[in-house]
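hi! just following up on the protien thing from before. the input was this:
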Amino acid sequence: MTVDSFAGVGYSFSLVNIKEGEIILDLGSGSGMDTFIASIKTGKNGQVYGIDMTEEQLEKSQQLADNNGIKNVSFHKGYIESLSFENNFFDVIISNGVINLSAEKEKVFLEIARVLKPGGRMCISDIISEKQLTEKIICNASLWAACIGGASQIDYYKSIITGTGLTIKEFRENTVYEFLSKSAKNASKDFGVKSVTILAFKLSA
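and the predicted 3d structure came back as:
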């Protein structure tokens, strides 16, 4: 896999333009794929932090880092709604298909705005919907697992981001992303559920 290939819900690296030496946070880092791509782009003088709530994923990602001699990454257990990092710490925050799984998205974006440096940027790929999902969709466990049950209506999603003081600079639909199950495809068709990538900046002080 090259560092410019498409993976997961979306591919934020085509928009975020990571610079050498930057400090980066990967929200919901999982097995570390995006964390490792970011580590290549920021180089040995940069640092990438991955945060995940599951021990299994953290163990897997740390083992991959150790086995491949990747020194500029570290993985931490935690929740994206409550980040254990100081204010104005990161140059870049990335996330791939994770924020839609949170029931407290307002807290997530408030935390992103808090830990970003002034002038820093957030670039996330996530699942949103054109129409508000019904209670039946929201309560469907299999659709939550397919990253659909937690999808927010796009106007509401954007309003949460801008409500934290972040400024959206680019919004891109990821048209190559496809849902696999029949129920997920139906929800996508009926409610306009889709993958998007959003680039936003925290204004300089």
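DSSP finds eight helices and eight strands in the chain.
The longest strand covers residues 116-129.
cheers
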